[in-house]
């Protein structure tokens, strides 16, 4: 008879979503057994450890979305977690600036969304902007977000790992989910019998969900994001500065970010990747992923859904460092391009595509049944929302 380990809850993925779900499960169900299986050697190997660290306020998202539902609470819960565990928080705030009349119109729409979502924010004029961030510039109006902040994602994930380990949550690293068979979860190492499975596998969440009968008409199309680091010893800005985004797609455009350690970076890119972990060269190359993802990218290019061609052409230009910096310089009065020299390690956005409509999914998507739950499209602001998402799932969706 095959041997196996048995847990009440198995979580696949040791990113921020998997970790916060385990954290909330342990608080609310202290008697239950919990394990996290992760194919990498440690927590936060992918998007959770490679994201900007910005805690978003919640004004980008339509009021009927899960992103809007969880942003404010998630922002507050993450700050509270950091405070109670002596982790870094940079309360650097944020402004969103416009460059023309069309962007000004979108800025007003963002302000309306923010108001509907209950976000603390306000429209300001050029004089008020000057007092908040002297180096930024705008067309007539800007949006000021006092609750936006920056944290260190890896520091937070490592702290969660330590807390969970000390509270009898078992971690299985270098352990890759393979399949579900005869009531067991099979991995490259152990077999597990579970009461309930939680799929928080990020870039592979759709692949795993399909093995449980979910994500049937969706696929993750990865997008690579890179930042350029400022190399000067001064601080040319003191507040995050963002452009007005195209609200028809989920990307926020090239912007200035201040990290938890007061370092400045500009970015990110949003270039379509050719396989899920396409960080550099042919590392982690998988032919089946390449062929499937290229098939859907070709369809997007031919149909030009959500202006995919324009997105690709624009992203190709960003590989020219001077062009990339010029995109950021539109937001500020002064930008010393000679001091933005170092490309930081890339991150990959696990962006879900609806295969029927050929549209990018804009919101978090959560599917499941009485025995499993699958967190799909956990893209920005998932890090901000993570503690709030975990509370909702543990108390409303997980038996």
Structural notes for this entry:
This protein has helices at 16-28, 47-50, 66-84, 101-117, 126-132, 153-166, 205-210, 287-303, 308-317, 321-329, 382-397, and strands at residues 5-12, 34-37, 54-55, 89-90, 94-97, 122-125, 141-145, 149-151, 169-172, 177-181, 184-187, 191-199, 218-225, 228-230, 240-243, 255-258, 264-267, 271-272, 340-343, 347-354, 359-360, 365-369, 372-376. The protein is α+β, with helices and mostly antiparallel strands. It is built from 11 helices and 23 strands. The chain has a single domain, classed as FAD/NAD(P)-binding domain. The strands form 5 sheets. Strands 1, 2, 9, 10, 11, 12, 22 and 23 form an 8-stranded mixed beta sheet that branches. The model has no long low-confidence stretch (mean pLDDT 97). The chain is globular. The longest helix has 19 residues, at 66-84. Helix 1 packs parallel to helix 6 (153-166) and helix 1 packs parallel to helix 11. 33% of the residues lie in helices and 26% in strands.
List keywords for this structure.
alpha+beta; eight-stranded mixed sheet; 26% strand; four-stranded mixed sheet; 399 residues; globular; FAD/NAD(P)-binding domain
CATH homologous superfamily descriptor: FAD/NAD(P)-binding domain
Overall morphology: globular
- Here the CATH topology equals FAD/NAD(P)-binding domain
Low-confidence stretches: none
CATH class bucket: Alpha Beta
Distance between the termini: 29 Å
Beta-strand segment tally:
23
Number of helices: 11
The percent range for strand residues is 25-35%
Number of domains: 1
Sheet of most strands: 8 strands, mixed
Helix content: 25-40%
- Supply the CATH architecture: 3-Layer(bba) Sandwich
Average of the residue pLDDT scores: 97
Rg, alpha carbons: 21 Å
Q: What would you call the structural class?
A: alpha+beta
């Amino acid at each position: 008879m095959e041997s196996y380990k048995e847990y009440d809850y198995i979580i696949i993925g040791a990113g921020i979503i998997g970790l916060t779900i385990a954290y909330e499960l342990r608080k609310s169900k202290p008697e239950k057994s919990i394990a996290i299986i992760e194919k990498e050697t440690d927590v936060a190997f992918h998007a959770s450890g490679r994201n900007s660290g910005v805690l978003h306020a919640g004004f980008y998202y339509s009021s009927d979305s899960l992103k809007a539902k969880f942003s404010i609470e998630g922002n507050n819960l993450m700050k509270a977690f950091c405070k109670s565990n002596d982790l870094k928080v940079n309360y650097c705030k944020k402004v969103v600036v416009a460059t023309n009349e069309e962007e000004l119109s979108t800025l007003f729409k963002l302000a309306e969304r923010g108001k509907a979502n209950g976000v603390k924010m306000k429209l300001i004029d050029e004089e008020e902007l000057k007092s908040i961030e002297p180096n930024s510039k705008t067309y007539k109006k800007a949006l000021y977000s006092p609750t936006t902040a920056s944290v260190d994602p890896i520091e937070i994930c490592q702290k969660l790992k330590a807390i969970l380990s000390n509270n009898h949550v078992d971690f299985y690293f270098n352990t890759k989910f393979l399949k579900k068979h005869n009531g067991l979860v099979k991995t490259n190492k152990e077999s597990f019998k579970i009461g309930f499975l939680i799929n928080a596998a990020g870039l592979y969440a759709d692949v795993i969900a399909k093995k449980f009968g979910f994500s049937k008409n969706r696929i993750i199309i990865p997008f690579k994001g890179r930042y350029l680091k400022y190399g000067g010893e001064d601080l040319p800005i003191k507040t995050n500065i963002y452009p007005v985004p195209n609200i028809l797609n989920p990307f926020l455009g090239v912007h200035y970010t201040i990290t938890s350690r007061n370092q400045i970076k500009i970015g990110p890119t949003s270039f379509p990747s050719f396989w899920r972990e396409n960080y550099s060269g042919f590392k982690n190359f998988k032919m089946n992923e390449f062929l499937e993802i290229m098939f859907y990218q070709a369809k997007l290019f031919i149909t030009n859904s959500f202006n995919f061609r324009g997105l690709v052409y624009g992203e190709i230009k960003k590989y020219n460092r001077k062009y990339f910096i010029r995109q950021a310089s539109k937001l500020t009065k002064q930008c010393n391009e000679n001091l933005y020299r170092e490309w930081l390690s890339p991150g990959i956005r696990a962006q879900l595509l609806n295969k029927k409509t050929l549209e990018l999914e804009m919101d978090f998507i959560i599917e499941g049944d009485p025995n499993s739950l699958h967190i799909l499209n956990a893209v920005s602001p998932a890090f901000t929302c993570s503690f709030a998402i975990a509370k909702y799932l543990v108390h409303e969706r997980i038996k």
